[in-house]
Amino acid sequence: MFILLNIYLLFIKIKVLIIYLLTFIKIHDNHSIFIKFDKTTLIVLNMQNSTLFSSYDFLKDTWDEMFSNNDALRKQYEIISNYLQYTSPEELSKKEELSKQLFMHQGVTFTVYNDEKGIEKIFPFDILPRIITSKEWEKIENGIKQRITALNLFIKDIYNEQFIFKDKVVPANLIYDCPYFLREMKGVTPPFDIYVHITGVDLIRNNDGEFYVLEDNLRTPSGVSYMLENREISKRIFPGILPKCNVLSVSSYPDILYKKLRQCSTQDNPNVVLLTPGIYNSAYYEHTTLARLMGIELVEGSDLVVKDHVVYMKTTFGLKRVDVIYRRVDDDFLDPMEFNSKSVLGVAGIMSAYRKGNVTIVNAPGTGIADDKAVYTFVPDMIRYYLNEEPILKNIETYQLGKPEDFAYVKKNINKMVIKKTDGSGGYGMLMGHEASNEEIDDYFKVVNKNPAAYIAQPILKLSTAPCYIDGKLSPRCVDLRPFALYGPDGIDICPGGLTRVALKKGSLVVNSSQGGGSKDTWVIK
Amino acid sequence: MLSRVANNLIWMNRYMERGYSVLNLLKVNYSAHQDSPDLFPWTPIINNYCGSDSGFSSENSIECINHMIFNLDNQNSIINLVTRSRENARSVQEHIPRELWLGINSYYLYLTKPELPNKLYQEDPVVFLDRLLNHQLLYYGKIDITQERGSAYYFMDIGKFLERVIQISDLASMKLKEIAKTSDALERSFLWKNFLLSIGAYQLYLKKYKSTFQEDFIIKLIFQEQLFPKSLYYCVNKLSRHINQLIQTNELVNNDLEFLLGKLQSTIQYTTIESINEQGLTNFIASIKNDITNISLSINNVYFSNQS
């Protein structure tokens, strides 16, 4: 009997021990999942997946989005970095492949024409997101709102009273010489005085950590569908990570856009359409996506007709009035009666309907004037002039060689400068100070000396870098940022995010898709 | 709906329907060719779809299938049909369900994979063709369960049934030429059976008339069967219903459409076997083809007259 009892007690002891051991293991499991981040754990973790970060060589004098100068991880990247530590390169490569397939299968492609045979390509996508803190975003948002408000006032002013010329803030000849200035718009007042409904300002982050405006893109900026599509892909390849990071959603963009377009009409139930140049346009995918997500009709020029200064679309029911046109056709091609007479992409007579106020064109024709390189340098002055405020976002510093003190500064710092002709474009007639030989510099200055006023100089840009997943490793690549702003009668809204374009070639500063550029998802975190 | 969109929807479905019927024909003829290459040659099929001056001539089954699927110079190759159907779908994305666009896009991506043509030479061709047929069937299934029954659906159906009538009558005249070449009763019955198979009516025929292949029964089934989706009667009936629905909602201008359809319907429905035999089946089919061409032109005219 006693023996039996002993055995029973022993059995209970063993059971308790087992339960204790089990809990112990469980606690430890929890610990390994929720690791607190500090520098030491990062080092420990680095050892687990060291190949990924092994060759992360920073570009000199460049701001990196993920790491600060002393190699410390920036706080906003902690969660994603933790995730990467526990994901093998094979797994990441699989995710990269998945992202490519998702783009192809949804038809998120653009067509490159070669030998008359179109080849559909995807815009390269880097799986790692670019992360922006709420503090940084607040400044970007306020800065863009301020800038667009001023630019809109400027466009209104130059097509009407032209106070800014009379007050000698901007020289009049600068505007009249610009090909984007449309005389056809003089005295035309669009509904609610809004000209630039949709903008995609290009920003870069310099090595001082500040965002600078590179271009304003006030005509028909594209890329917003990639902001939406990249986010959908991120959700697939980083399951559960977005909510953990408190990433702000971008999915309401089409709803906001539709609301603003609707508000631009004086009609009760306006018919809003999206005008595309057609399936051969490289942004055709974007046009179909936006039309589909807003539930509006996607029209081509030949679907529209103007009768008695009213625009109609040709439907199976007959003609149906069109009230708002979100056009993705350039000014030049909009109306063959007024601009390029050979254009088949536009609608004959649309400008007359617009002048009569029978249709709203978004963005208004003639906004390109404020998008011009030479006009760009005056934007900070416009902000001061129209709003009596200091610019929140800086312009890239521009030196007018016509001013002797600027000229002297540029000459002294030529190896950090790029000199451009004010009327030049496409990179012609430029001098890149850091690459040129002394002889080339001397020769260039001889030409400049003849008419210094025709030249400007800017410091050579240092685009910030962000980690990209390339060949199984993380490497820094240069990025820019294009947030999309929507201007309606109820104010300006900017979707928290945007298109981050990335120069996938090592050391390259060119983010354009035509020259080896790609894109990243952009996370703005709460 | 935009007139251009209506036109895109019609053609999106016409190209897909043609693809479906080409693939069925290729599959049936491949098997028949294994039995009797002389009785089931490839040349009439190639000539029907590519024209007799296409410059392509072969009796090698795989070469012929390859030509009908992958040749880019062949207007009616599957790859061209799917590309054009997809192009139409692409510009009407806001009118069709997302599933449909994703499906047709993945069919296109599958067909344009560079390694696919090689598979035709390595695999069992029937498995290969079945895989493509599956894409076609998925397409119909997606329309069935996701497309709103409104004008877009009616325009799509018009495309489908117009093309089906044309395909069935083309196939019928093609087979009749073959049948006329022989007086051997057994060969004739093989050819008739093959005709039923190519249309997809073989199983129903067996069920209705058992395994005796009589010309009159076959004509009755393919031309006048009321409830069979691949009979001319059924197709024209559907066509007329959808066109009338669009006319009633003012989305299609009548012109002479109602008259043309009514005439065709009664021709098919009320012509007796005796009178078909009297005028000759070939002539009968020719008159149907003529009528359907007029209907198709009339729909196009409506579309173009809306353009101005």
Q: What does this entry look like structurally?
A:
The complex is a heterodimer of chains A (526) and B (308). Chain A has 526 residues and is α+β, with helices and mostly antiparallel strands. Among the domains of chain A are: 97 residues, no CATH class; 87 residues, Rossmann fold; 63 residues, Dna Ligase, domain 1. Chain A is 37% helix and 21% strand. Chain A has 18 helices and 24 strands. In chain A, the strands form eight sheets. In chain A, strands 8-7-12-13 form a four-stranded parallel beta sheet. In chain A, strands 15-18-16-17 form a four-stranded antiparallel beta sheet, with helices on one face. In chain A, strands 3-24-23 form a three-stranded mixed beta sheet. In chain A, β10 and β11 form a beta hairpin. In chain A, α6 crosses α16. The longest helix of chain A is centred in the first third of the chain and has 32 residues. The N and C termini of chain A lie far apart (69 Å). About 6% of the residues of chain A have low confidence. Chain B is mainly α and 308 residues long. Chain B folds into two domains: 147 residues, no CATH class; 145 residues, no CATH class. Chain B contains 15 helices and no strands. The two termini of chain B are 16 Å apart. Classes of the chains: A alpha+beta (526), B mainly alpha (308). The interface between A and B is medium-sized, with 23 and 22 residues. Chain A: InterPro entries: ATP-dep_Glu-Cys_Ligase-2 (IPR051680), CP_ATPgrasp_2 (IPR025841), UCP005522 (IPR016450). Chain A: Keywords: Membrane, Transmembrane, Transmembrane helix.
